[in-house]
């Protein structure tokens, strides 16, 4: 059997099969090499492996099968000689191969960290031929060198849909092969500084971000008349972001009239709840010297 020395992938006609360790690769090779009579049903095999040296295994195989209601069994013994090669993926990884550069940029560290973590998760959960040769923080963002242009394009578009912002795609000529130009693509993903559930101060009112859809976002005003609107993400570039809200202690209330303890000033404040409000929590946000209450 032919196996990759770096990742234990097993070479089969036309491709390589991934395995986590050498024994798993050998077990698959042996199991797939057993020839069964076409009339045998419910066939099973149990393997016992013993490694004799770095390139040889002794294998004992217990086989069972059903032949027209008769249970048959057999014990097989064999030795497997391993020939080590380097698969295409490991060869490319060792050689620093990459097809695309993914550049993630945003002014907000929290959003950048979430996006970077998501990209790493996609790389780790993807096929072995999709990898990053080099990645790391740069000024204003994070860069990835990726082995697949199509995957890089998909990730950049998914980030834009989830976080908003926009994507630019450029390419440079890096050589020619078989009469065709070889291009290296760069995907620039610029993410906004706001995210879903953020609180903004806009037009002398406090707003909450309900949804982000590419370059547009849906906001809801957190005071009467509590209306909603869609705006361009870019128009919120200079809108102040408010810190996470604090819980408010309700001192007393009668109908819609409430006496609340301001968590920022520790003073009692009279407030009127929204009409027909039946929530349980009151939150407080601070901007400047003013406290704004959110009826959750």
Keywords:
elongated, 296 residues, alpha+beta, single chain, four-stranded antiparallel beta sheet
- Percent in strands: over 45%
Instruction: Categorize the overall geometry.
Output: elongated
> Element order, helices and strands?
EEEHEEEEHEHEEHEEEEEEEEEEEE
Distance between the termini: 64 Å
Please tell me about this protein's structure:
The chain folds into four domains: 2-85, no CATH class; 96-190; 195-242; 243-296, no CATH class. The protein is built from four helices and 22 strands. It has helices at 22-33, 88-94, 109-125, 149-163, and strands at 2-4, 10-12, 15-17, 41-53, 56-67, 70-81, 83-85, 100-105, 132-138, 141-146, 166-177, 180-190, 199-202, 205-213, 216-221, 228-232, 246-247, 249-254, 257-261, 268-272, 282-287, 290-295. It has a five-stranded mixed sheet, with helices on one face. The longest helix is centred in the middle third of the chain and has 17 residues, at 109-125.
Task: Outline the secondary-structure elements.
Blueprint: E1 2-4, E2 10-12, E3 15-17, H1 22-33, E4 41-53, E5 56-67, E6 70-81, E7 83-85, H2 88-94, E8 100-105, H3 109-125, E9 132-138, E10 141-146, H4 149-163, E11 166-177, E12 180-190, E13 199-202, E14 205-213, E15 216-221, E16 228-232, E17 246-247, E18 249-254, E19 257-261, E20 268-272, E21 282-287, E22 290-295
Parallel strand pairs: 1-7, 8-12
Antiparallel strand pairs: 2-3, 4-5, 5-6, 8-10, 9-10, 11-12, 13-14, 14-15, 15-16, 17-21, 18-19, 19-20, 21-22
Structure at a glance:
The chain is of the alpha+beta class and 296 residues long.
